[in-house]
Specification:
homodimer, 439 residues, alpha/beta, 7-stranded mixed beta sheet, 4-stranded parallel beta sheet, 13 helices, 17 strands, 22% strand, globular
């Protein structure tokens, strides 16, 4: 079965065409034609009668999930450095992030490390990702090649850092712009599924000169941009010091056209955004990458994503490996719900009006991980007709408890407790990219 | 190897004799004699030269973990019912907890369900647990038999409910006392490793008459008591309604001698304890079962356990399956750290003095899961000489990333990301109770 020939998956189909609720089709057929969803059927209609059917009766079939924030070079130290004996989370950069990222100058090391990441991504529920690489162009290009070879969809960014970085990981302004231009020229049209995305790490690591140059490259190559925004109070204070003429952090990107006014913009975190910044985040060409696991690890604070969504913001979910601990977006969906409860409890206890008992439902959080983030690629993350055929078949028999369970309950449980062991088959743009070995 | 013959485990040994920090012994021998830890050695001394050695070179060896709050009958619906479309967590009782608990009247059903739980507990890092069963004496006795046969240590409680329960799950006061007496008489001296613990569910489900009777039985049979305390604001308000003459919830137990004045008391949750209640919790015969996963799921609020610990309270960790999602205490250790960050951030944002940047370290949280809870059984949960020989061998090679990692980093990662797949061997009181099939 490839993306050209029509084919069908049979099983218990679940998706969230709307933010509000799941739609289920038990024991139904999900038809793929030309890499897109052609329809969901209880019985295959005449024109599809003879197409190949992958029979996954009893398994769940969900849209592929989109990891909207992932630091590829940090995967080797996932789960490390988040519990410091004397809480001082700055040391995470010095002890883990910067020393590890430096190693990607060595293309052999990068090849081995990125191959492990891509192998593990393949087994996860993730079909698409927006990825930070390192400052190193060759390693970044290699990661793009690996993702393409694996059949995953991704935006990948060569990171820019021309100030406040570690020795050996600091570019001059000229270098960062020249390498970015070369990288964009080499990769912008190379793959249909893996694309470059402009990636100034964050304001503290990019001079105004770099930002100006990147701004021009963004328009010249018509590429989107991803970066970090309002992740922690210390970072926000630092940005205010570096750019004393701005009122809020988001302006540091907006003045370079990087807040959705010229190209699509993806803003990771947005935990402490002010009302003015929130308005900026609600622009139609901006998306928030909500990273609940990383946020709770780092600052103990949950981003008020429901507030953003009610105001019209577009939101996807991110693992933020390795500020977050895991690539497993099922767990991140679960964390997003918990984070929304934490935010609600905070509002309740402190008397913030208007947000009481306003928490993400399971369907809401599932939507963010699928159709929410998927919107960054257009019609993606849902099984509506015409959407990209990204599908994950989940074998949830590990959780069988001897009782009949509804599809809602099964999806709830796989989100609460599932991991890569549940992934049975995975399709991206209609191509099967992963099939579990046993059964 | 059994508990009589001395033997040793060889590997990378990690424990927390103190709350403050880990102690490591790389590539060392942990010797067991007469079911107790006889010592840790770099080289085996002469008298142990010929004892059998289980060579786990390269694996981690940690003390067994103690799950201080676990509802055994709720295991079949783990991960379910925590995300209600319109947040109304009362329906969790009506939809899941009560209907499921009713089924344990049927001993066949109970046998099947409890066998699954005990099988999964065996593969986890848990060696000891404090367990709520149901109101049903026969099923409760059966669970005790299964735990004993599996070689696990446990306190198990027949639950008391003579008001505010569901039809079919409500006892009369006379019934609950008569069945409890019979159960205690049949089980109090039956096993050395599995013991009864008095288990009035919580104040709303037990009349004063029941509490008076249970109070007498507690002293007559010299058994400890476990129950729920100050889990949520609604529950606390309800208790105040039911007992208008008390100033705080803890008094509802204290007046029946169930707050450590006569027998040991284990109080689950304690999220919203007042200063007066906190003082009561600091009595030497009281232990708090901190259940961070369940608390964040249920109320979005983290119990201020560091505050309790600083004031002298004894604290262990609980999964609270199935208010919590998982039996996996590694994940609960991780959640305890996150919960402490959430509490710290709450204090920081609301200006609560004196608790700034005061979060659980990895060693602190590990201590709670091992020696903290273990204290409920006396010298347990640490590898100090004379302590009960409860040990778990963890094969953490699944997380190998091509880089050398310190023992601290390996334990950090297994706590962040590990599950039952890491359990290679498990010992309780010197007996091997689980050995992984492959390797």
């Amino acid at each position: 079965m490839n993306s050209r020939t029509p084919f069908a998956l049979k099983g218990d189909i679940v998706h969230t065409p709307s933010f509000a609720e799941f739609t289920y089709y038990e024991d139904a057929y999900l038809v793929c034609q030309d890499a897109r969803v052609a329809g969901i059927y209880r019985e295959l209609p005449g024109r599809y009668r003879d197409i190949p059917v992958a029979d996954h009766t009893g398994s769940l079939i969900i849209p592929g999930m989109c990891d909207m924030h992932l630091h590829a070079p940090q995967y080797p130290f996932r789960g490390l450095g988040q519990n410091i004996e004397k809480p001082d989370w700055d040391s995470w950069f010095d002890q883990y992030a910067f020393p590890e990222e430096k190693r990607y100058e060595d293309l052999d090391y990068a090849g081995r490390a990125y191959a492990r990441l891509v192998g593990d991504l393949l087994q996860s529920t993730t079909t698409r990702a927006c990825i930070f690489a390192t400052i190193h162009r060759p390693a970044t290009e290699h990661l793009m090649e690996l993702l393409h070879a694996a059949g995953l969809c991704a935006y990948v960014g060569k990171v820019n850092m021309d100030r406040n970085s570690a020795p050996g990981l600091l570019e001059t302004t000229e270098e960062t712009l020249a390498e970015t231009r070369l990288w964009l020229a080499r990769t912008a049209g190379k793959y249909s599924d893996v694309k470059p995305i402009l990636t100034p790490r964050y304001t503290p690591s990019c001079t105004n000169g770099a930002m100006e140059g990147l701004s021009s490259l963004m328009d010249e190559f018509r590429v989107p941009v991803q970066t970090h925004l309002s992740e922690g109070p210390d970072e926000i204070a630092w940005v205010r010091e570096l750019m004393p003429d701005i009122r809020f952090y988001g302006q540091a990107y907006d003045r370079y056209g990087m807040m959705g006014t010229r190209q699509p913009a993806l803003m990771a975190h947005c935990v402490f955004s002010t009302p003015e910044e929130t308005e900026m985040l609600c622009r139609p060409n901006v998306m928030i990458a909500h990273c609940p696991d990383a946020n709770l690890n780092y600052s103990g604070t949950a981003a008020p994503v429901l507030r953003y969504i009610r105001k019209g913001a577009r939101v996807g979910l991110g693992s933020d490996v390795s500020g977050g601990r895991t690539l497993n977006l099922l767990r991140i969906v679960s964390e997003a719900i918990t984070a929304s409860k934490i935010h609600w409890a905070y509002c309740e206890r402190t008397g913030v009006p208007g947000e009481k008992r306003d928490v993400l439902t399971l369907a809401n959080a599932f939507y963010l991980a699928t159709k929410g983030g998927g919107a960054f690629w257009g019609d993606t993350g849902s099984f509506e007709t015409g959407y990209a055929f990204d599908a994950v078949v989940l074998d949830d028999t590990r959780f069988s408890d001897g009782n009949p369970r509804s599809v809602y309950e099964r999806i709830e449980r796989v989100i609460s407790l599932g991991d890569e062991r549940e992934t049975k088959e995975k399709y991206v743009n209609g191509s099967c990219v992963y099939r579990r070995k046993s059964g």
